[in-house]
Amino acid sequence: MFTSFQTWFIDFILGPGGYPALFIFNVLTDTLIPGSPEVSAIAVWTASLPVVPSIIVMTAGNFVGNMINYWIGYSGMNLAHKYFPINKERLGRAERWFDRFGGVALLFSWLPIVGDPLTFVPGIVRYNFAKFTAYVLTGKIIRYAGLYYLVRGVV
Q: In sequence order, what DSSP letters do the residues of 39-53 get, joined into one string?
């Protein structure tokens, strides 16, 4: 089912949807909705959409999806505090760990399977949003630039 949805969306991107559809597809695939932003990237480059604008649109869409994840983590923690006992010592350790290593971890938020859930954690531990933004955007841009250079000989 998700494969046919992804195929339909890519056809829509390459047809009447264009950049707005590409943006929406990348927002959706960087939340927990299954889909592959890499497939859309390769599809738009195969269809000869300009590389730099498509990287900008895909990165922006991915980042909006990750902001939604951050907000869900942040809001979810508020609800959890309200209804469930949370060990403040453990939460404090998690916050200190993420302050120390979280930025490097967020550079890998583009990885399949682990990347999207990774962007919930900063919201839970109240990681600095400016740092979150810088690391996530850097990771996404590196992903698309690297992907383009890997596939440009094939596409």
A: HHHHHHHHTT--HHH
The pTM assigned to this predicted structure is 0.83
Q: Please give the mean pLDDT across all residues of the chain.
A: 85
DSSP code per residue over 67-120: HHHHHHHHHHHHHHHHHS---HHHHHHHHHHHHHHHHHHHTTTTSTTTHHHHTT
Q: Which two tokens stand for residue 146?
A: 């690297």
The answer on pLDDT for 70 being more than 60 is: yes
Q: How far apart are CA 98 and CA 105, in angstroms?
A: 9
Alpha-carbon gap, residue 61 to 93, rounded angstroms = 32
pLDDT by residue (tens digit) across 142-155?
999 999 988 876 65
Do 115 and 108 form a contact (C-beta atoms < 8 A)?
yes
Rounded Cα gap, residues 24 and 47, in angstroms: 18
